[in-house]
């Protein structure tokens, strides 16, 4: 049985998913809900063309990574506009991968696989030709994915989807365990403190002037 986790502020994604009760996070419900979503995602992938598979799978991973970072960062109502939308610093898959790594949310090998998956996605997204996973460059990149549990000679699309699912499970687990920092309290000096500082400075100046 999972131990409940407190503080919905630190689990905003769970709150958004509607699986909080009072101030209690119910991890088993998070896992069940995510498991159902991943099963539906995996089933949908099988119906996609190779190009559709690459774009859909990496888009799903990108969103999961965005959710992880959203839960890992201090919360403010402007967080989406400031960090995740338009030309904001975390609007791209690449930038999200980098920050997740430097926050300690993904390992070096996870970062490497995510970057490989991103590069494979770009091959499909930026190529107007009718390409598939058997294209030599894409096939080679798929064979380098560490999170595929298949034998090395397995078909490249199988390596790709297996790696996506393996990393996705780790991201979901990290999201569940994530605890965000609080926004630092306002600490602007009061007018009284400012005046005291000015008076102290003036006094020291006068004393120094006398002793000169």
From TrEMBL:
InterPro entries: MtlR-like, MtlR-like_sf
Gene Ontology biological process terms, A to Z: negative regulation of DNA-templated transcription
Superkingdom of the organism of origin: Bacteria
Region (Disordered): 182-212
Biased composition, class Basic and acidic residues, residue ranges: 190-212
UniProt xrefs under Pfam families: MtlR (PF05068)
Name under which the protein is recorded: Uncharacterized protein
Organism: Aliidiomarina shirensis
